[in-house]
Structure formats: structure tokens, C-alpha cells
Amino acid sequence: MTALVEAHNLTRTLAGEPPVPLVRGLDLSVEPGTFTAVIGPSGCGKSSLLYLLGLLDRPTEGELRFDGIDTVPLDGDARAKLRLARFGFVFQFHFLLPEFTALENVQLPIRRLGRLSDEAASARALELLEAMDLAGHEHKTPDRMSGGQRQRVAIARALANDPSLVLGDEPTGNLDSVNSARVIEIFRALAHDQGRTVVCVTHDHNVADAADVRIHMLDGRIERTD
Amino acid sequence: MFGRSRLLLAIALKHIAKRRRQTAVAVAGVAVGVGFFLAVSALMIGSQNDLIETLINSAPHIVISDEIRSPSPQPAVAAIPDGAVRVRGFKPRNEVRGMRGWQEILRAASAVPGAVASPSISGAVTLRTGGREEALAVIGIDPEVEEQVSQLEDNLAAGRLRDLETNQGGIIIGEELARRMGVGMGDTLGATSPRGGNRSLKVVGLVKQGGGTPFGAVSSAGYMLLREAQSLTGQPFVINRIGIRLPDPYAAEAIAARIEARYGYKAESWQERSTDLLGLLVTRNVIMYTVISAILLVASFGIYSVVSNSVSDKARDIAIMRSIGFSSGDLQRIFIAEGLVLAVIGVIVGWALGLVLLEILGSLEFPISGQPETIPLDRRPRQFALAGVASLFSAGIAAWLPARKAAQVDPVDILRGAA
Fold this sequence. Notes:
Strand content of chain A: 25-35%
Oligomer: heterodimer
Order of helices and strands of chain A: EEEHEEHEHHHEHEHEE
Largest sheet of chain B: 6 strands, mixed, barrel
Number of domains of chain B: 2
Strand order of the largest sheet of chain A: 6-7-8-3-9-10
Structural class of chain B: alpha+beta
CATH architecture of chain A: 3-Layer(aba) Sandwich
CATH class of chain A: Alpha Beta
Distance between the termini of chain A: 18 Å
Radius of gyration of chain B: 34 Å
Number of helices of chain B: 15
Strand order of the largest sheet of chain B: 2-3-8-5-7-6
Radius of gyration of chain A: 17 Å
Helix content of chain A: 25-40%
Order of helices and strands of chain B: HHEHHEEHEHEHEEEHEHEHHHHEEHH
Largest interface: A-B, 35 and 29 residues
Largest sheet of chain A: 6 strands, mixed
Shape of chain B: elongated
Shape of chain A: globular
């Protein structure tokens, strides 16, 4: 099977005196339809790796391919376009736009993509919210929702553009055990039922246990994969 | 593309709605700027138009006189234009004043569609009555044509121009001169010209004190029938001035140049006569537009402040939108849209404020020459459009400066900080 994400000698160093290495010469391959957890102690470079994989940051060295596309030479707008079309992000904090309702937040990527009419975008967003058990909450702004509900809205938004790759940065880090379990279940279903590729950076052993592949990181390097 | 613009505008509107107080201050700034732009420009341009109208209407648009701007070259110089000719000790021929072939010039001037040309002659006479003597520039006119060319008829306090035709030896003089000489309507004066002409004249009209005349100061000019003035001043069949009124006063400069080039006599347009004043108006306009542009610029500082704060406060939202896939251009457009929406609201409120100010200014009356008069105001839509465009432009620049920062935000820095 062809890997969806492939990295060779992936390196990210912060400029400075002395330079700060975040990710050191990683080789990585993520198969499509898998749920991968990246685990390791704080400061080991997990989030930095995620930002590189999500094309939010640029490697200082190495090669990174997404679905066969060499992403390193792409400019900012081309990377944004690729993110909009193929990527979905879920962060530790819900990161919803506070002035927008749940429905409007989920519609954002759909409307920005501009492939659907307003009505179709609204229908798709409602469908996603219902799939996240959020029917009836669509017109609430984030400040009127619980932490678990907000995170599910964020997951619905991450799926709105029908992404190939869903990236989670400690998606359960701010949730109680019940909501964490629910998010883990959703992530597993995304990979196993919908065939999406999920990569989660986590400290949560429950997330790691639920993943198909676990990448253990230490000091910016992959220590082992199991 | 259109859907994306609507989305970006919707985000901008949400940001604005969240900051009502700052929005109100920024809108008020633009509105006051636009309102006072309209009031000041209406006053300045209104008074300028009024002045120009007075300049245009107070005298013929073109005055051809029997003067020549540069002396004609000596025959020897004219015969050998490129030769090294130097003429010394020559005696200039005494030319008789007056325009040669004036009938042809009159015909040519009248040939301009819609134009009216009025011939006249001027000469010096001395008026006498009861032992008093006053020097006077007597001007011979054709009343029927003159009343179409100048506003002399409108400036008469008593009598009519046509009365010169029905009264032999009739003269129209200024009210002030009449008072000095102690004469009134119907009184008789003695007149003597330097060439020996001598006759009695009857006062048939009085020009208002302070009223302008097409020929200069009221106090020292008197008007007679053309042929009687020619006879009195000893210049039969001669004229030394043609006044032309045009349907388009702004064509005066070009037509005057054509006439002067063809006939050699000095043809002066109203623009040439008013060069200094028109130059002053240009300077005045530069000052006016500088001041009102400064008002609009200061108003745009409010927009800069709102957008700049919005960019700072929304750093996390910017990072989120970047992670979703919004381009740097999208983010820039969101914040520029914020500034432009504020400016559009400000311009609309400013237009309303401007209309109120114009109504107030237009209702004020000031006593001018004893008559209550309102201030001339320029209420043309052009000024409203200019105020709107200038405000939107300055608001666009004011919003663009901080919006650039939004486009440069590194989402990773924000996401790391938030985590």
C-alpha cells in the first residue's frame, strides 16, 4: 500500500544562538486508513512533528510527501489550499471561533472551499453535528456549550471538508474520561469505518491503546514504533 | 469567488458586531470628517462659483480693444526677417486711435454661434454744471446690443439703456457723480471734449452706487449713444472696443486668442482679465482640500485603531483559520473589510450629517449691501461622491496597514502558545 504521508530526514530547528532542534532527522510513513498515535514526554517534539505533517510549519531540512506531493517547495498559499482540501485539525482546546454558532463553525471550511451552495453546506454541517450527537445545539455559540460538546463541534469542523488526513493535537487533553472515550471512539471510527487517516499526538494512554500504530518519540527522534 | 467574499465579509461583520463601542467611535470619526468635508467644500466651492459667475457676467466675456500687445515690426525688419537689420533714429507714425476694419471684426465675432458682439467708443470729456467741473470717460454704446452683452441694464438705479435712443443728447452717469454735481434725472449738463466738441447732455439714467459696469469704475464713466459719443469726442465712425458675450463663457480664452491672432488687436478674455484672482482661487482650493483631507485622514486613525486591536485580539482566530486553510490573502481581506465596512457606515452617516449642516448653512441670512442674502453653497452630488471615495480610500489604507500583520501571523507560534 502507498503511504499517505512519507517523511525522510525530517528536521525542524529553531534559529537562534544556539539553535534549538525540535525534530531531528525523522523517517516516517503513515499508511492510509490507519489510526496512529504519537506519544512521548513533554518537549520531545510531538506537536512540532504534527505541525510539520499538517503543513503549518516548514521543515528546515528533509523531505515530506503527502499523497505523493512534495510539500517542501510549496508556498504558503499552496499549502493553505492543500490543508483546506485534504486536512482536518483537532486541537487540545476546541479552537472554535467564539462569535460563530456551532453550525457556522462547522460550515467555515465548506464555505471557504466553495464547492457547495449555502443550503448544501448547511445540510452537510447539520449532518456532521448530528453524527457527533449535537443535534439541537447547532445554533449555540461555543460559550454556551460544555467542553465535550465543543470538542465534538471541533471534530465535526475538522471533517467538514471530507479530509484524507485528520490530525489531532492532544484532542482529549482537556476532556473528562467519558468525553475522552467518546472522542477516541470517533477517531477509531474515522480510520476504520470511513477509511480516513488519523494521526494524534497524545499523552493519553487510552488514545495510544486505541491506535493501530504508536510512534514513541524522545528528544525529537523516533525512539520506536509499535 | 463570490461565496468566499461573502464568507470573509460575514467574519468581518461578526468582529465588528463584537466591538460596538470602538465601532461607534470609528464610525463617528468618519461621519464627522465626511460631514465637515461637505460643509466646508460646499461653502468654499459655492462662494468660488458665485465669484466666478460674477466675473463672467459683470463684463463681456471677451473685450477687443484698439491696443496692440507688441509693436508691429519696422518695414525693413519685416522685409528681411532673418537678416541682421538694425533701425535707429526712426520716428513712429502717429496713428489715429480706433480699430481699423472694425465692421469685419464685429461680423467675425458675431459669427460664433450664439455670440453677441457690441461695439463701443470711449473718450474723455469734461462735464460742467453750475460752476462745477468733473472729468468723465464717456462711452458710446449701442443700447440694444449692450444690454445683451453686459449687466449694465441690471445695475441702473434709474432709467433704462433704451432711453439713450429716445432722448437726443442723453447720458447715463453714476449716482455718486450725480450727487457730487448736484444733478438728477432729467437735468442738463454741459460737456466739452479735448478736440473741441461741445454740447448739452441730459441725464436719462443713473448707475447704482457700488454697481459694477463693464467699463470700469461707475463714478468716472458715463454712457451715451454710440454715434453721439463719436461726434462729441471728435472720432466719427471710429470705435475702440468690442465686447463679446458667448454662450459658453469657458470658450472665451480660445476664441479671444483666435481673434487676436487674426486681427492683431488685443482680445482679452475674462479669464485673462482675472488671472490673479483665478490663481488665488487655485491656491485657496489647494488649502481647502489639504485641510479637509487632513480631517478625513485623522478620521481614518480611528479605523486603524479598531482594525489594529482586532488583529491583536483575534490572533488565535487567525491561527485557527490558517489551520483550516484560509490563505494569508483571505485574512488580509477580512480585516480590510472590517475597515471598509466601518468607513461605509461612517460615510452614509456623514452624508446625512452633511445634508443637515448644508440645510443650516443655507438657511442663514447675512445683510449684504443692505439686502439679506444667503450663503452660496455647492450642493452637487460630485462633492458627496468625492467625500465618500476619499473616506473609503483613506479607510482602506488605514485598515490595510494592520491587516498586513494578520497575513503575517505564524499559526504555529499561536498554537504553541495556546497549548
